[in-house]
Amino acid sequence: MKSRESLVRLKEFQVKEKQRQLNQLQMMMAEFDRMTKELESQITFEEKKSGITDPSHFAYPTFAKAARQRADNLQVSVRELKIQQDAAELALEEVKAEHAKAAALEERDGGVRMRA
Q: What are the sequence ranges of the domains in the chain?
């Protein structure tokens, strides 16, 4: 039953690929969170240096304003990646179930061939 063996290998590959995609999303989210924290630290430093913490103040530091915008954009990206992560987790579970089914069929067929 070569086709079953091929199916099992295909499903193993799909599981590994989905896991890799999920890991990549998680790494990107962690990196974006780290970058956001770094930007927030820089914003706090600029605000202390200038003595102005109100972003709507006319003399609010330009760098702090730009860093705040970048941090907000990163947070939007993290939320979008979270949606992708949820979808990837669901897809991974589906592929794992398909792999388990294919492996069970292969094992059952392997047992039948050995007895014959």
A: 2-115
